[in-house]
Write a structure and sequence with these properties.
By secondary structure, this protein is an alpha+beta fold. The chain is built from ten helices and 16 strands. 23% of the residues are buried. It is a multi-pass membrane protein.
Length: 460
């Protein structure tokens, strides 16, 4: 059984995008890549170009159709249909309140109207039968006749009296008398039924309006995920944000990769869930979501992306699902927002554009949500995290061998200016052999500090 995921995009050379200035950087001109561009577009720009026809991914409608085959849509809806459930209607009727809350609004409003109209008609028939059996309709013109319900002459009068009784309107013309005990009993029953029916319908409408599911409409996920180096490690980045000022309480996030797995016994598990660590041990999965936050997944040996290189990303068939949960501050109910990313929606060698600035004129931090989905390219090795780790280990081994060979020949020459155990750092770079100029060092350090001060005033 194959997994129902999208295949990779078609091969071909893609056109390059126009250059635009990154206003959030300090006088650096970088190429801005929008979030709607896929990983293959950026790779095609960086690889050597070969002669041939230009094919754009968006022009391939067949590829766009394959991209829709996903388990979880971007809006969080699950692409699953349930069939062959025994006694399904009976199970749904057993939990009637949840069923009424989950159904669509048009069915809910239709049920609301039918519940009242049918109850009015049912009790109107009962009132008409009481008046008919007592002879009130035949003796309506007899002024000496004492009816069960005064001013009731037809079925229309019975319907009006039923509405007045159920909703305690009481216009004053029609009312029951002590002539018929059955009329008094029906009036008490209808009064109780009207209160119960109105309370149920009002509760269902209120529960449907205050569902925490609608709170997820104001929680945003980036259209693309990014892979780049951060603190020396390959990391997967996803941006989440909240558009409301009433923030989520105890917000936390988790992610899984749905992918096919083959067990040691040869069994194929088509929809196996691989856990994606978003900093659970360090507490980075618990979010303070007052501004858009970038989720970071460090690609290590336990990561499902450990052996994926850029050229392997689109050959894999998987779906990354991100789930954000929290308590709605205004109602106290728990809400959940979901989104997913296919291989074509993961950009290799990109990072998210900064969107939080500090306004000096009013002293507030401003969030520009027009840049929420924008990404910027950055230098990233075109190797998997496993290959980078192996190359780093070999580099450390060779460096250790070179240090052992040079310790006797080079170590004695370093004592002319500085002792060999000491390393002087200038502007963050380790230096061991240079012409020392104290005035030049002080002036350069002061310029760096002033530039960093200006950045802190305009950039988060």
């Amino acid at each position: 059984m194959d997994t129902p995921f999208a295949e990779g995009p078609p091969n071909g050379r893609l056109p390059s995008t126009s250059d635009d200035a990154d206003m959030m950087e300090n006088e650096n001109m970088e190429t801005k890549i929008g979030s709607q561009e896929s990983f293959t577009e950026f790779m095609a720009q960086s690889l050597p170009q070969k002669p041939g026809p230009v094919i754009h991914r968006r022009a391939d409608r067949h590829y766009s159709k394959r991209m829709r085959r996903r388990l979880v849509y971007k809006n969080g809806e699950v692409n699953i249909t349930q069939t062959n459930i025994r006694k399904r209607r009976r199970r749904y009727l057993a939990d009637i309140f949840t069923t009424l809350v989950d159904i669509k609004w048009r069915y809910n409003l239709l049920l609301f109207a039918l519940a009242f109209i049918l109850s009015w008609l049912m009790f109107a028939v009962i009132w008409w039968l009481i008046s008919f059996s007592h002879g009130d309709l035949e003796n309506s013109s007899n002024k000496n006749w004492k009816p069960c319900v005064k001013e009731m002459y037809s079925f229309t009068s019975a319907l009006l009296f039923s509405i007045e009784t159920q909703h305690t309107i009481g216009y004053g013309a029609r009312h029951t008398t002590e002539e018929c005990p059955e009329a008094i009993t029906v009036m008490m029953i209808q009064s109780c039924f009207g209160v119960i029916c109105q309370a149920m319908m009002t509760g269902i409408v209120f529960a449907k309006l205050s569902r925490p599911k609608k709170r997820a409409e104001t929680l945003m996920f980036s259209k693309n995920a990014c892979i780049c180096k951060q603190d020396g490690d390959l990391c997967l980045l996803i941006r989440v944000g909240d558009m409301r000022k009433s923030h989520l309480v105890e917000a936390h996030v988790r992610a899984v990769v749905i992918k096919r797995k083959i067990t040691k016994e040869g069994e194929v598990l088509p929809l196996y869930q691989f856990d994606v660590d978003l900093g659970y041990d360090e507490g980075r999965d618990r979010l303070f979501l007052v501004w858009p936050v970038i989720l970071v997944h460090k690609i290590n040996e336990q990561s499902p992306f450990w052996e994926m290189a850029p050229e392997d990303l689109h050959r894999e068939q998987f779906e990354l699902i991100v789930i954000l949960e929290g308590i709605v501050e205004s109602t106290g109910m728990t809400t959940q927002a979901r989104s997913s990313y296919l291989p074509g929606e993961i950009l290799w060698g990109h990072r998210f554009e900064r969107l939080v600035t500090f306004q000096k004129e009013n002293g507030q931090y401003q969030i520009d949500f027009s840049r929420f989905h924008n990404t910027l390219p950055m230098d990233t090795p075109q190797y998997s995290a496993k290959e980078l780790s192996e190359m780093s280990d070999r580099g450390h081994q060779n460096l250790a061998i070179d240090d052992d060979e040079e310790v006797t020949s080079v170590g004695s020459t370093k004592h002319d200016k500085f002792p060999s155990p000491y390393v002087i750092k200038r502007h963050g770079y380790a230096q061991t052999d240079f012409d020392y100029d104290e005035d030049d060092l002080i002036s350069q350090e002061s310029s760096v500090q002033s530039r960093q001060t200006n950045e802190s005033e305009t950039l988060l």
